[in-house]
Give the backbone structure.
Amino acid sequence: MLLLVPVLPLVGFLLNASLGRRLTKQVSGSVACGAILLSFLVSIAAVWQLVSLRPEERSIVQQGFTWITSGDFSVGLTFRLDPLSAVMILVVTGIGSLIHIYSTSYMHDERDREFATYFAYLNLFAAFMLVLVLGANFLVMFVGWEGVGLCSYLLIGFWFEKPSAADAGKKAFIVNRIGDFGFLLGILLVFVRFGTLDFQEVAHAVAGIGPEAAFGTLSLITLLLFIGATGKSAQIPLYVWLPDAMEGPTPVSALIHAATMVTAGVYMIGRNAALFSRAPETLTIVAIIGTATALMAGTIGLVQNDIKRVLAYSTVSQLGYMFLAMGVGAYAGGIFHLYTHAFFKALLFLASGAVIHAVGGEQDLRRMGGLKRELPLTYWTFLVGAVAIAGVPGLSGFFSKDAILYRAYAGGHTVLWSIGLLTSLLTAVYMFRLVFLVFHGERREPAVAGGGPHDLHDAPPAMALALVALAAGSIVAGYAGLPAVLGGGDRFAHFLEPSLGAAGAEDAGHAGVELTLMAVSAGVAIAGIGVAAYYFMRHRAAADALAARFSGLYRLLSHKYFVDEVYDATIVQPVRITSQEGLWKIVDVRIIDGSVNGVGQLVAGFSETLRRVQTGSVRAYAASLLLGAVAILGYYLWR
Amino acid sequence: MVTLNHYLVLSAILFSIGTAGVFVRRNLITILLSIEIMLNAVNLSFVAFGRALGAADGQIIVFFVMTVAAAEAAVGLAIVICLFRLRESLNPESFVSLRW
């Protein structure tokens, strides 16, 4: 049964990829949606089966076939469902299904053929992501890991006639490859150190070992794996591809940001929690990188003017939170945030897609405004998503973000905690900046591309369905992990315990601290909304004045800290110049081509001289025959 | 008394005459004749050795050489006739088109 979960979307992919060009939009859309929905149902059934087992026995294994055997080392195409992968498959197939349904409406203007291709890629993306989260060993995970990289390339560059989209696809792929290289080295090192690639066996192997005192093999393994995670999950220094990935269709952004792809790195660390727990050096690095990414992306998100780019930086920032959680050992908190984030980030992207759809492809915030009246459903669902991500009490984002911040504080990482809190203020500000600029105030550009206000239309049924479902999810999802102090019992973390190990210090003695921290972060979230309301609803001039006053800082932020420029100058250009001037014009042309041509010229030149021997004169031949005979005879006579 | 050496010296002289003929003469037929002289010089040394060693091998191989020489002369003369018809010349230097 477990095998069916990734196979169903794969079948959907094969159908649409092979027959797609002959199918109408209805048929290819239904095939894709049906495949992922069926996969969702199978996932529910599988998880149901898992939950009915006793907590310590919660693991369902299914082996497809033995893949590699060599001596006593063997790797199978094995899938394992445990609480952690259960959460992941539900998120991937559940949110994936909503995104598929939404896409049938959003992509309706494409031609039949492109429509089928799009859905084929979407199915393939889900299939690879499911392979990634269900894989019972590093190798199967790596297959999914590379597969989602491929699909992100295909989907980001879906409108490849546009050079910027093609470039963004390439950028995503290449940056991911850099991370993948680290990940692969990590896998090889795991094999060298443990002789197995199975997650459970590796966890057993390290079970008796205490945390490494100094930087050792385990730290190196985890650090290499983390490099892979920075690529897939868009952390410093490899986050640069994610904002550019906005060139793809909006539902694809939702899929990449919420259900698949970027969650892979967080999941991978959770999956190897046993390894990471024993490498405190790496955990420190993970926490610092996560926090730095959260802050950096949050500040950039503050000044971007493209609706999708703001959301992209918000994703990078929230992923930073998840890595902060992983780094301070709050694995369950990180996965919990991944799960709630999937709801509200998918919602925000799909709602922004509805906005873009409504105003005829416009993505610039400065040209929107006042859309609240025309797009009530989009407005309210977007608002729910924004409130949830900002961390207003009662919605899902509050619980998960708070779980992370509390664990950071309780773990003694006060600096990381305060930066996290600052980031959560920024999150509230940039999200509500988005809300106020898009939906409130007056239309700043009455004639958006596409015509007058009469062209504005709220989300069509398929989109509305996805938006409402996700909005409901964004509100209630958090209650799965209601913390103990609020009378919830932290069920989410307990559910994950078999996969992640005991959640750690959940001592009730700090209830007061926890409640205080909650109040602080709730206050911060509301303050952030207030700041956004002041600057972007009431006093727009004040915001502009602020930007003018700190013009240096503003330029730094709006140019994204010039990171792309720095990478271009320090990595891209040197690589290009060495390749062009060195490798191409010297190594390839001179040395490789030169040696091949040189051999040919040598033979040709030598032959040119030697062919003169063949004179055609019979007597010359006879003379050489005679001389030869005399020489041989002479040799034997006088040697 | 005629010894083996006498025969061998005569054979060497004949062979040298034949060789010189091949290189000096400018007539294909003469060259063929010179080759025949060389062959017979070799034949002479064969029979001389055969007699000196008291074995029949030398005489047997001479028969083989004579057979091959006859065949060679037949083919060679036929080729010479064809060449003459082609170029109206018997000078070997007229037939050098098969070269670089």
About this structure: Chain A touches chain B at residues 611-612, 614-619, 622-623, 626 (CB under 8 Å). Confidence is low (pLDDT under 50) at residues 447-454 of chain A.
